[in-house]
Amino acid sequence: xxxxxxxxxxxxxxxxxxxxxxxxxxxxxxxxxxxxxxxxxxxxxxxxxxxxxxxxxxxxxxxxxxxxxxxxxxxxxxxxxxxxxxxxxxxxxxxxxxxxxxxxxxxxxxxxxxxxxxxxxxxxxxxxxxxxxxxxxxxxxxxxxxxxxxxxxxxxxxxxxxxxxxxxxxxxxxxxxxxxxxxxxxxxxxxxxxxxxxxxxxxxxxxxxxxxxxxxxxxxxxxxxxxxxxxxxxxxxxxxxxxxxxxxxxxxxxxxxxxxxxxxxxxxxxxxxxxxxxxxxxxxxxxxxxxxxxxxxx
Length: 298
Ligand code: ADP
Description:
Blueprint: H1 6-9, H2 14-17, H3 22-29, E1 34-40, E2 44-52, E3 58-64, H4 66-100, H5 108-138, E4 146-149, H6 150-168, E5 171-176, E6 182-185, H7 187-203, E7 210-217, E8 221-227, H8 235-238, H9 251-254, H10 262-272, E9 276-282, E10 286-294
Helix pairs in contact: 4-5, 5-10, 6-7, 7-10
Adenosine-5'-diphosphate binds next to helix 7 and helix 10.
């Protein structure tokens, strides 16, 4: 891997042996457990892991990760490409469709076609959003690791979705332990989890119904539940709803737009934070979605 002959190294110090590989020398000279990238000949890359044995000897293990890093880079650029190369043109289509009418009178037929273009554009945009989110998370993109109080995230999402709730004539009742324990994680992604659960609760509720969102926990775990009294989910579908693109066969669901990705995204994010998510439901009576995350003490 290093392009050296073992016999030539015997009796020499790490600095004499590996003068071209400064990080490798660092791994030998530092104490405790260490991990560093080590550049190899022929533009290859290794991860070096070092530890000190009970006997006082220092051991360094190198693992060639050139291909893996290359793959990560390619995945990342693919996901970037989807988000930019797909979403931007869709926005452009809708934008130009909006402009056409402003530059001259259109006949009824043209107006009708224009409305269709605009509607299709909006629908495409809505569907690609969750697809990009899911591709991003599934590509193993790094999550940020910040202290978060779920109560703050919940309040943000409730505010964001209250126009939709108003439109659907449903009420959102929030009850949060004060303070909710802190979790370490990615604020944007955890917001997505709550967003999808609450969004579903709203669209699958009936007018005049109330949705209850709770958060509570202790020094080990924090729970968040979103309960509605809406259309509910049949027993045999309950285990399928977290699957990619699964949508209930219920006509009331089929009539609503949606790509069946929200819960898959929510589950992937929660699992990547070391947590779990599940649903309980009775058809025609409502559903409760709950997720749990490990907490940290600040
Ligand atoms: P989408 O809502 O876009 O269809 P989701 O992945 O968020 O996709 O949900 C998958 C399916 O689970 C929905 O199509 C619906 O059948 C069911 N579902 C999710 N949340 C609820 C809810 N609160 N009440 C009833 N059904 C639900």
